[in-house]
Amino acid sequence: MKRYRQFEPLLISDFEVSSWRHPEHNHNHYEIIYIKKGSGTHVINQVTIPYKDGDIFLLGPEESHYFEIDILSHFVYLKFTDLYLHQDVSNTNNYVQNLEYLIKSRETHLAGFKLSDNDRHTVARLFDMLITLKSEPLHNEELIWMQILALSHILKRNMPELKPFENRSKDMQAIFCYIHKYIYSPDQLRAPIMAGHFNITADYMGPYFKRNTGTTLREYVQNYRKTLIKQRMASGKYSLKQIAAEFGLTDESHVSKIINVL
């Protein structure tokens, strides 16, 4: 399978085509794809999803996809890497967490977002703005970032309905989404709290998770948190103190322990 590699932190493109020119492929970056107009089908991991004017898709590096176009279609692509996500984001951590929650949750990648009419109108305006800014990305860097943060907020409140994919049950998808949402709040990820949220007993929570995933709940949470922390450290934009505060950890030594021991 073809794999596209992007080295720039962010690329914005828009184009209109009547037939799709790319083979099935994956990539090393994330993509937010907006259908400005047109209709057809979007094939993601061999799952066929119809698309129409105003639809929006989010893909991660693990997804393979291509389009089958029925009616002349205008696509707008936002393609960005982890490096772009973890740029200098002073005073915007909550918004970055919205975006990170979206792009790290596979549940959001396998269906188009179902937006309300008002949100569809707002998203259309945001993409119009991004198109006008794309010709001078460095000059408009801050404005582009603001549009992406606004877009992530809208998408988060329009999460796709949780549907079973592959061997994962609807309940397990909900549990994964819960973990990804509350990864910054350790108290919410304790088995008794999670069990109460899903109306099951605390004694059942751990075995249920392991039976369906092959790993323990504790191991999954630790590994997911470790991945996010390592990405922040690799960006060079966060101090250990900032990371500890964001993830609800006691101090910098706790961050170091997560990275070096787990």
Automatic annotation (TrEMBL):
Q: Look up keyword DNA-binding and say if it applies.
A: yes
Q: Which residues form the HTH araC/xylS-type domain?
A: 173-262
Key words of the record: DNA-binding
**SMART domains in alphabetical order:** HTH_ARAC
Q: According to the UniProt entry, where is the signal peptide?
A: none
Presence of keyword DNA-binding: yes
Q: Quote any Pfam family the record assigns.
A: AraC_binding
The family database entries (InterPro entries) matched by this protein are listed as: AraC-bd (IPR003313), HTH-like (IPR037923), HTH_AraC (IPR018060), RmlC-like_jellyroll (IPR014710)
Descriptive protein name: AraC family transcriptional regulator
Provenance organism = Pedobacter panaciterrae
